[in-house]
Predict the 3D structure of the following.
Amino acid sequence: MNKNIYKIDNSIERVLQDRSTLFLDQKEFNQVKNKLKNNSYKIYYPYKDSEKVILYTKELPNVALFKINTIDSLRHQDILGSILSLNISSSYLGDIIIDNGNYYFYILSELSNFIKDNLLYVGNNKVDLEEINLSLMKDYERKYDKLSVIVASLRIDNVISKVIGTNRDSVVEKIKNKEVIVNYEVLNKNSYILHENDIFSIRKYGKYKYIGIINHTKKDNLVIEYLKYI
């Protein structure tokens, strides 16, 4: 069975059995939500606009929040890669937050001891984990840079080339190499047309959210607005 289909079916079964799901990204959440009655579950958000959520019915899910203490500068992708390299499924891992030089991540509590004992390095950087109270980040709001750019069309290859300042051939190569993710799925065609609130990420460049068209130029080009995740 396809891994994604299994997770969706398993999540539905958990809710029906009054058990919490694992962490769901927004695509998975929408797939599960569409197969359940709206009043049959509650949604646990670790913080206000967290991307990954947990569905539950009665008891709040058991989630731990860790702060990564280090003297080094860390990147989101390196934190994620180091955690997943411990053979931890991404379904057990919540959001990773980088805020003013501080690093945090959410994980299901059942893996707390394991992660403390085994996550000793992020990349080549030695780190120390500190489990902190969930309430310390409950009011956190994700930060973005709000940006705009002029594009000829909303084709994904055209938009990305303007966003990261490269040519379209280079973007097409990145898509072929599976370096572009749109709405949590690997993009497989460069002709995809962006829709409002689409989330896309480019390996080594970061994560973005397309907001929409805010103006037109005299030459009929589009002025679009997007958010870059910080």
Notes: The CA atoms of residues 65 and 133 lie 7 Å apart.
